[in-house]
Amino acid sequence: MAFWIASSPHNHIQAQTPKLMRLVLLATLPGVLAQWYFFGWGNLIQIGLAVLFCVLAEITFLAIRDKNIKAQISDYSAVLTGVLIGISIPSFAPWWITAIGSLFAIGVVKQLYGGLGYNIFNPAMAGYVLLLVSFPVQMTSWAPVNDLIAQPVDFLNTLWLIFTGFTWDGFSVEQIRMNIDGITMATPLDTLKTDISRGLTVEESFVNPVFGQFFSHGWEWINLGFLLGGLYLIFKKAIDWRLPVSFLAGMLLFTFIGYVLSPDSSASTMFHWFSGGTMLGAFFIITDPVSGSTTQKGRIIFALLIAFLVVIIRSFGGYPDAIAFAVLLANMAVPLIDQYTRPRTYGHNQGGKS
Amino acid sequence: MAEQSIDKPSEYRELVWQGLWKNNPGLVQLLGLCPLLAVTTTFTNALGLGLATLLVLICSNATVSAIRQWVPKEVRIPIFVLIIAAFVTCVQLLMNAYAYGIYQSLGIFLPLIVTNCAIIGRAEAYASKNPIKQASFDGLMMGIGFALVLVALGTIREILGQGTLFDGAHLLLGDWAKVLKIQVFDFDAQFLLAILPPGAFIAMGFLIAGKNYIDNRQAEKLAKDNKPKEIERVRVNFEG
């Protein structure tokens, strides 16, 4: 009979990486379906492309690094990175954008740092930031929501648009993004930012049809979808509830401060919660167990820091959305946060002195 | 003077090896990173700054070495800085007169050569302890090493960022050089990251990684070549 002598902790969580990753993939479904409903086939094609390139990059780099390819591919982490990239990329972006982002995310951000578990930065968000910084035109060309589009785009046309730059019927992305009056439509966050810089107040800006009935037309349902998936993850104990809760609470706090100080130039908390990538960020991005903080107190600080940065960049920065930048900046702060929030081990005094 | 005559060729060979590869100011000492990363957006800019630094480095090394007997140890740094600043001013005026285009595109980074640690580092570490000949040769080699890294980085970033090579070479070499411009490939969109500072850091990282990779392979090869001999020696001892 074997007598196992193991060091603490003796009580392990039995969760396995592939199982966890599959669960997270499943939980993105409601949000992805909402995205499909409002933005058409584009995002599903982008997700497919991103997953393909991520897995190819993973296989290539694992082969170069002489690692066990089969074991590391079947943990689904590359697939998840691909899905997250595909969700974040504008639906009509050309295919090489997705390819470059995926290759960078897996090749440089993940594998060069040592593969799963060793990356300092969130691969999907680093890939997204690379694209946003390098190709601002393509990366901000979000199509308007389906029912605001003058020229509906079906599956074949979308596929053609992504691979050649024009639809089967010969329309370019710019033409599709125009409404009936010939004005290019942007995302709600982008529209609000432009309007405020033009001297309009938030209320005047909200007349624009991109904001829809509630906060931001179409986007609120996508965010609701990701919220639903996220709650499922919390229910399954796949992610720590502290992260999304403190993130959303942080956004409430910081947007409230903005709203009190200057109601005409700051949108409401609900707008911030339900537009852009807030819910995707809250439940699927900042909960990344590798690049985020690992201590309980640290996670709260980490999420609050991201919330603060998101609100600041959305209000004063040059880019309309800020989840990716905020997450990367907070990733850099993680070692410091972890250092100062190390929990007291049993039998030791506060502050690490025994 | 006795030190000068000891094994001359190998000393110079060592200086070449140190400056160009083993102790390269850009890749190994990581000195002067600020101009290295900021200016290398195109090949031409990189070459311009590389030549300017090379010139300053040779002159300052020679001067520092020439006056090394009279420099009091306590105030050597200000004296070195003054010497370097004087040469930087010369180079700056020369470039202003003969290569105005490149002078403009280098901007503040030309006068900032004064603060380039590679130059003061060489003055302190080598020139202030060695005779003029070796010191100037060291300056030449270190300068070439630095310029090579600059040019490599400039080439990579220009090709990735704009898809061109030798764009704007006429600013440095005269109007005939306009024909040098090569369109390597055509993008619909610029790859902005390569031109922005983060791209410089990433490309620099890859250059350093490449150098370390070559070094490691070399070391492994050397170890493999030496191994059989060691085993033989052990066996001989065992039997003996």
TrEMBL record, chain A:
Any one Pfam family match given in the protein's UniProt record, by short name: NQR2_RnfD_RnfE
GO cellular component, one term: plasma membrane
Record-listed E.C. numbers: 7.-.-.-
Signal peptide: none
Entry's Gene Ontology BP terms: electron transport chain; transmembrane transport
Top EC class, one word: translocase
Quaternary assembly: The complex is composed of six subunits: RnfA, RnfB, RnfC, RnfD, RnfE and RnfG.
General function of this protein: Part of a membrane-bound complex that couples electron transfer with translocation of ions across the membrane.
NCBIfam families given in the database record: PRK00816.1, rnfD
Protein name: Ion-translocating oxidoreductase complex subunit D
Native organism: Thalassotalea litorea
From TrEMBL, chain B:
The protein's enzyme class: translocase
Nucleus keyword on record: no
EC numbers on record: 7.-.-.-
Main localization category: membrane
InterPro entries listed in its UniProt record: NqrDE/RnfAE, RnfE
Bilayer topology annotation: Multi-pass membrane protein
Annotated transmembrane regions: 30-58, 79-100, 106-123, 135-156, 189-209
Record bears the keyword Transport: yes
Family indicated by similarity: Belongs to the NqrDE/RnfAE family.
Name of the molecule in the record: Ion-translocating oxidoreductase complex subunit E
The gene coding this protein: rnfE
